[in-house]
Design a protein that fits this description.
The structure holds two protein chains of two kinds.
Chain A (H helix, E strand, L loop, with lengths): L1 H26 L1 H8 L11 H36 L2 H35 L1 H34 L9 H30 L9 H9 L4 H30 L3 H22 L2 H15 L1 H8 L4 H29 L3 H24 L8 H7 L13 H24 L2 E2 L5 H25 L5 H32 L2 E2 L10 H27 L4 E3 L3 E2 L10 H26 L25 H5 L10
Helix pairs in contact in A: 1-4, 1-5, 3-4, 3-6, 3-8, 3-19, 4-5, 4-19, 5-6, 5-7, 6-8, 8-9, 8-10, 8-18, 9-12, 9-15, 10-11, 11-12, 12-13, 12-15, 12-18, 13-15, 15-16, 15-17, 16-17, 18-19
Chain B lengths: L3 H19 L9 H19 L3 H16 L5 H26 L31 H14 L1 H4 L31 H10 L24 H15 L11
Helix pairs in contact in B: 1-2, 5-8, 7-8
The chains are: A mainly alpha, B mainly alpha.
């Protein structure tokens, strides 16, 4: 893999370069004093803020992909090792191949971002360096460890099969540990800007530690960790979708259909807890600073959350649509059996999405507002507040989870003696959970906000989690002894399934661009909220239309970038069998029951036709 | 007329009729933006449902394809096809024209109702204890200064409210003061409509600037009286003991 090796070397060069620049900034006191006299630099016409906006967003998106993919690549490898199913190992390797090719580009954009930040915002960067210098060193060491581990993990893949697999898995585990810390260290720098903690006394390490452990650090860490898995899953799904559309043989279609399923599965399972993490983050921001909370949730940035609802809604619909198409196309005869449940789930999803997208203050003409008695509609205005939004988001998560359960059970007949009872219990639990979530949502209007936030919203989340955590093992047990009534056929998905996977990835990228802008803009005219004011000519929040254009641009550029990287990464595959080649059709593999077949699309084995 | 396409058309038209004509029989009319949103969601649901399987896709798209290609159409069907192909672009053109033609109507607003308060009002807490006496004083002051617009029942329907567009806030609505901290109300009462920040453009609020008539103590007590009278609680981060 010459491209992968070259990329890694480039990544190392950039890290060493960054280390040199950071050391120079920190040590050359006289140089720093001189730099303090220049507060800002700019490139006329383009604008420093615009350039940083694009580069920072590209770096963050690439970093999200690079840090998210190792998590499920390692899980896939682990599943393959435990189940002795080589498909997982091959899939994990293919995921890692995408990772290695994106890694150097991420480092490249990180380096460019650093140089531009030092150039455009010398005063701010000098201040941040003063606070965070110890963590800069830690970051550089982590980067070296991550690079070295990735190097060994990727290039040692084939060499560490058999009895060396355990060591390879340890490497993958370490890769994820380093990746996690690589994510949370710069998160501290970014969250410090929004919720700074500055102590006057103490050593450099104590100051850095206090600044690191700021009120929004952990909420952002958790939110980003989950979001990275979602981004990675859906991008891998999109990659598989495109490869599926371009597939020239039945084997390729089967393989990339399966890979697309796994990518969607990972994206969906990451997406299920994401709203909870987002809610926690917003709660912490609101509690940290009322002004920032209102700017985000009630002020001029509140419209972004309507766009967010739309994008999340499209994502939920796309993920479910893909599951449903999987049932009707991969499982012969399943269409008529599942038509009604699919319709019911679609209606619930759409009603929930309608509620989620209904703004608190409606867009209305003067005349319309006069007839409504204001911009709050007397009946539908109740949909505009958090109690309604939390309720419908929980219901949408429940429905999506049930789509997956339905897919898992499709084409199989339970044989366990207790299957009837288990299904009745699950049905009853599901109905009760739905009713409980709705009751808590309605009740939330009649209690003080703090009761709703601390108890009702948490209870709604726990109810949904309870359903997921009980249904998953129960279904796994049921499926373990189930007999297959209709064999799952891979490679039969229609063309629109491939586009659906691409659309899901685009929605996630747009979402991350949107919320990245929201988080950054909530600081309004502060570089560091309440500590260092933005005195540049860009000390204003761009209009929402302008911001939306930049989000679209960022999404477009990132898609181009990813397409290019993947194209380069797969150039060497032409004419090769590894690693995209599926298992020979003459080698059916028995896989034990449980979660592994669910991840593999519910197929208990690779069926022969 | 049978089939998925006819069902879809009936659902869409039915949805429009309910939103546009039936719902206003029971409540206020919906703004066009919301009607379009719900119709778009309905259309999306229809498209998703009928494209899940190949069979349903063919059943749904078949008539559309046959209509567009004119396959096997003669007589009345052929004339109807021609009429639709002529009238549909005209309808789109007319819609576009009516949207873009200059008019004396003000543009549709997306006013920010709850802009962020200035820094000096952030984190303030009511310095007066929530005693029955203070609440009673607050309600008395509310009756004198606020109820003409916001109503004796705290529902935004005071005798003067009919003169305002947008109307005064309804404090009983869980989407108004129940979503806010007391310091926010303190800012809004003290500075009024003229104290709204840039992001709240076009500043359409007739709320007086009470800082010259009411002392801070009176304002805090009015806030207490408002919450109590409207049956709401302010947003806090600590639970009341």
């Amino acid at each position: 893999m010459p491209s992968g090796r070259g990329s890694l070397i480039l990544g190392l060069v950039i890290v060493v370069g960054a280390l040199f620049v950071l050391s120079a900034v920190a040590m050359a006191q006289s140089g720093a004093e001189k730099a303090m006299s220049v507060e800002y630099r700019d490139i006329p016409g383009l604008g420093s803020r615009n350039i940083i906006w694009v580069i920072a967003q590209q770096h963050l998106l690439l970093a999200g992909f690079v840090l998210g993919v190792p998590i499920f690549a390692w899980v896939c490898e682990l599943v393959g090792w435990k189940t002795k199913d080589p498909r997982y190992d091959k899939l994990a390797k293919e995921f890692t191949k995408l990772l290695t090719s994106a890694y150097a580009t991420t480092a490249l954009f990180g380096g460019i971002l650093l140089f531009l930040l030092i150039g455009f915002y010398p005063k701010l960067m000098a201040y941040l360096t003063d606070i965070f210098f110890p963590s800069f060193i830690v970051y550089c060491i982590l980067f070296l460890l991550e690079t070295a581990t990735l190097y060994l993990y990727w290039y040692g893949w084939d060499a560490m099969q058999g009895n060396k697999k355990g060591f390879h898995l340890v490497l993958g585990f370490l890769l994820n540990i380093f990746a996690f810390f690589i994510m949370i260290v710069p998160n501290a720098w970014a969250t410090f800007q929004a919720s700074p903690v500055v102590i006057a006394e103490g050593t450099a390490i104590e100051k850095a530690w206090a600044a690191t452990w700021n009120p929004t650090w952990w909420p952002v860490n958790i939110h980003r960790l989950i979001a990275n898995v979602v981004l990675g899953g859906f991008i891998c799904g999109a990659y598989a979708g495109i490869r599926y559309l371009l597939a020239g043989s039945r084997e390729e279609r089967e393989h990339y259909d399966w890979m697309g399923y796994v990518g969607n599965f990972i994206g969906v399972f990451g997406m299920l807890p994401l709203p909870f993490a987002g809610y926690w983050l917003m709660r912490e921001i609101y509690q940290y600073n009322q002004q920032m909370g209102i700017t985000l949730m009630g002020g001029f940035l509140a419209w972004l959350f309507i766009l967010q609802a739309m994008l999340i809604g499209v994502l939920f619909l796309g993920a479910n649509y893909y599951f449903w198409m999987g049932i009707t196309h991969r499982i012969p005869g399943a269409e008529h059996q599942y038509r009604k449940p699919i319709l019911a789930m679609l209606i619930v999803l759409m009603v929930c999405l309608g509620v989620w997208m209904t703004p608190h203050s409606l867009v209305a003409s003067l005349e319309e507002a006069r007839k409504m008695g204001g911009t709050h509609h007397p009946l539908l205005g109740v949909f505009g507040v958090m109690s309604a939004k939390m309720t419908v988001s929980n219901l949408m998560i429940l429905v999506t989870f049930m789509s997956f359960i339905m897919y898992w059970r499709a084409g199989k007949q339970e044989t366990a003696t207790w299957a009837r009872l288990a299904k009745a219990v699950m049905g009853a639990l599901l109905i009760l959970a739905g009713i409980a979530v709705i009751i808590l949502g309605v009740w939330g209007y009649f209690v003080p906000a703090i009761i709703r936030i601390n108890y009702f919203s948490v209870a709604q989340v726990l109810i949904v989690l309870f359903i997921m955590l009980t249904f998953t093992p129960l279904t796994a047990l049921l499926m373990k002894s189930a007999k297959t009534t209709a064999e799952m056929i891979w490679g039969q998905m229609p063309v629109r399934a491939g586009y659906c996977l691409v659309s899901n990835a685009v929605m996630v990228i747009l979402l991350m661009s949107l919320m990245g802008y929201a988080r950054s803009s909530s600081r309004v005219h502060w570089h560091i909220y309440g500590v260092m004011r933005d005195t540049s000519e860009y000390a204003y929040s761009p209009a929402l239309g302008y911001a939306a254009a930049f989000m679209s641009l960022n999404t477009f550029v990132f898609c181009l970038l990813v397409a290019f990287i993947f194209w380069v990464a797969t150039m060497g595959d032409k004419g090769k069998h590894e690693p995209g080649k599926p298992i020979s059709r003459s080698e059916p593999v028995d896989v034990p029951g449980g979660m592994a077949p669910a991840m593999a699309g519910g197929a208990p084995r690779v069926h022969e036709r | 007329m049978k089939g998925p396409l006819a069902t879809a058309a009936v659902i869409l038209v039915g949805m429009y009729v309910v939103l546009k004509f039936v719902l206003p029989l029971f409540t206020a009319p919906l703004p066009a933006s919301l009607i379009y949103l719900y119709l778009a969601l309905t259309l999306s649901a229809i498209l998703i449902f009928y494209t899940i399987s190949g069979e349903s896709l063919n059943a749904f798209m078949g008539p559309i394809t046959r209509f567009l290609t004119g396959e096997g159409q003669v007589g009345m069907a052929r004339t109807a096809r021609m009429l639709v192909l002529i009238l549909f672009p005209l309808l789109v053109g007319w819609q576009t024209y009516t949207r873009l033609v200059p008019s004396d109507q003000p543009p549709v607003e997306n006013r920010t109702i709850h802009p962020a308060p200035p820094g000096e009002f952030v984190g303030l807490s009511n310095p007066y204890p929530k005693t029955p006496e203070n609440i009673a004083v607050g309600k008395g002051l509310y009756a004198a200064f606020c109820s003409p617009c916001h109503g004796a029942n705290f529902d935004g329907k005071g005798p003067a409210s009919v003169g305002f567009n947008p109307p005064p806030a309804n404090f009983r609505d869980p989407g108004t003061i129940a979503q806010l901290q007391e310091s926010y109300l303190f800012w809004r009462i003290k500075k009024g409509g003229v104290g709204l920040p840039v992001e709240a453009m076009p500043w359409r609020s007739a709320m007086p600037r009470w800082e010259f008539e009411l002392s801070d103590e009176w304002i805090w007590k009015i806030i207490m009286g408002e919450y109590d009278g409207a049956g709401q609680s302010p947003r806090t981060w600590e639970e009341e003991e």
